[in-house]
Structure formats: structure tokens, C-alpha cells
Design goal:
single chain; alpha+beta; Arc Repressor Mutant, subunit A; 2 domains; 6-stranded antiparallel sheet; 11 helices; 50% helix; elongated
């Protein structure tokens, strides 16, 4: 038998996912659609391209509004993300990101170097900025806590991608858009693979004006003792007041900060695994 057409395979995967996820999965799809607009959105806009019939979509929207996951403005007829969803997002942020335990460490690093410090984690193949400390003389730039950026042309993104296991790295690289942001952006996958090899060998990455003109940085991964990528830490400046050579001189202090964060993260993030390990060995007193 020949291979099943890709669109038919995708449709069957979607059917299986819909059957297993049920109503909750469909409601989350509606939330995703509202969030994707990045602004209050009218019913007609949501209906356009929606997989749900008009009555079904309206029912989901009404339920989500009633539960506080969405808000509805009767005057404009627009839907927006609700307060309850924001509260849940903040709770998830505090419990799952490196930000809470890393905060004092990046405060000290920021005070020591005087430039912008970023803390980031991977979200699929992309970069999720989870915290940021501005330079003594702040400069406007793309990155903000909570914002998602590209992995292939940011220092933190490249530092994390380079240290992923081979299979995970290949998947993440396949998710990169390789859009040219500046003349320095690496847009060729083969060239990018060589870049990641070099980063893995030296242990730190540079952003040489690859994402934003005039913005440069050096980044190191935050790795567990087993080598698992937990996140990345970077120091960023402008070409007007620093250089890649000067930033490279900060690698030892950035690496030491990353190691301190990793040490705390391992005991903070994985209590269940550690508890299960004790149980498997017969308890702490065994």
C-alpha cells in the first residue's frame, strides 16, 4: 500500500485529538483563536475560518465569558481574554518558570555588569523571555518578559538550541522560520547547524546584530547536572557602547550565575521525582 496523503493523515490526527480532548479541547481552541488576534475580536472575525458551526462557536464563547475566561463588551460586541485567564496565567508563570528562583541572581548580575540581562526558556523551538533587567541606561528593544521571540537569531535561543540532545535539536531547528531580520541574520539551515556546533563547543552564544540592528549580546545555557537545558541567561548591549569582545569578557560571571540558578532550579523544580526516588529506595531513613 502507498503512503496515506498528508492532508488525510493530518485530518485523522485531528479527529483523534478531538475525540480524546472533547469539549475542553474545543473550548481551548476557541481561547487560542481569541488570543491569536492580540486584540479584542468580534464574533464574525472568529467565525471566519472557525472549525465550528456558528451556533457551536457562540455557545463556547458564552460559556467562556460566564466562566471569566473571556470578557465581552456589549457595546462593541468584541471578545477579549478574561481576568480569570490572566490570574491562571500568572499562577502558571510563577510555578513553572525559572523567574522566581532566578530573580536574586539576575539582580546581582545586572548590578555587576550594568547592561540588560535576559532570562529565557524554550517554548517549542522559540524563545520565551521569562524575566529581564534593564541596563543602567535602558535601550528600547524587542525583548520583554512574557514575550516570545525567534530561537535562531537570538543569543539565548542559540545557546539553548545548541545544547539540546540531537533529536530534540533537529525538531527545534525544523520549527525555525529563518526570516531575515537584519543583514547579519543566519537564514541558511546548514550554516545555522555549523553555528550551533561552534556554540556547543565553546559553551556560549553571541547575537551579532542578528535580530535587531545595533543590539548585541552574549548568552550561556542554564544546564542541569545531567546536561538538560533549563533555560538561558544573556547580557545585552548596544554597539554604541559595547562590543562582542567586551561582552565575551563577561562570560565567566554569566556562567557562574547560570550555574547558581541551575543548582537551585534542580531542587525546586523536581520535588516529585526526588520524593519518588526516596520511596523507591525505601525512604530517607533506609
Amino acid at each position: 500500500m502507498g503512503e496515506e496523503p498528508r492532508d488525510m493523515t493530518a485530518r485523522r490526527e485531528g479527529d483523534r485529538r478531538e475525540a480524546s480532548d472533547g469539549t475542553v479541547g474545543k473550548a481551548l481552541d476557541v481561547l487560542d483563536r481569541v488570543a491569536a488576534f492580540g486584540r479584542p475580536v468580534r464574533f464574525a472575525e472568529l467565525l471566519d475560518g472557525s472549525p465550528f458551526p456558528k451556533a457551536t462557536l457562540y455557545r463556547f464563547l458564552q460559556t467562556l465569558v460566564h466562566q471569566g475566561m473571556l470578557s465581552h463588551d456589549p457595546g462593541t460586541g468584541a471578545y477579549a481574554l478574561g481576568v480569570r485567564l490572566v490570574r491562571l496565567a500568572h499562577a502558571a508563570w510563577a510555578q513553572s518558570s525559572l523567574a522566581p528562583i532566578a530573580r536574586p541572581h539576575i539582580d546581582r548580575l545586572s548590578a555587576a555588569v550594568g547592561e540588560t540581562v535576559h532570562l529565557a526558556q524554550l517554548d517549542g523551538g522559540q524563545v520565551l523571555y521569562v524575566d529581564k533587567r534593564n541596563a543602567r541606561q535602558p535601550v528600547a528593544m524587542f525583548s520583554q518578559a512574557g514575550r516570545v521571540g525567534p530561537g535562531y537569531c537570538t543569543g539565548v535561543g542559540k545557546a539553548m538550541l545548541a545544547h539540546l540532545p540531537e533529536a530534540a535539536r533537529a525538531r527545534a531547528v525544523s520549527q525555525q522560520a529563518f526570516h531575515r531580520y537584519t543583514p547579519a541574520t543566519i537564514t541558511d539551515p546548514a550554516a545555522f547547524a555549523l553555528e550551533l556546533e561552534a556554540i556547543r563547543a565553546r559553551g556560549h552564544a553571541f547575537d551579532a546584530e542578528e535580530h535587531e540592528p545595533g543590539i548585541v549580546c552574549v548568552a550561556v545555557p542554564i544546564l542541569s547536572r545531567a546536561g538538560t537545558v533549563l533555560g538561558a541567561l544573556s547580557v545585552t548591549g548596544t554597539t554604541a557602547r559595547t562590543s562582542l569582545q567586551a561582552l565575551a569578557g563577561l562570560v565567566p560571571v554569566i556562567r557562574a550565575t547560570a550555574a547558581d540558578i541551575a543548582t537551585e532550579a534542580e531542587s525546586w523544580r523536581f520535588p516529585e521525582e526526588q520524593t519518588q526516588g526516596l520511596v523507591a529506595r525505601g525512604g530517607a531513613g533506609a
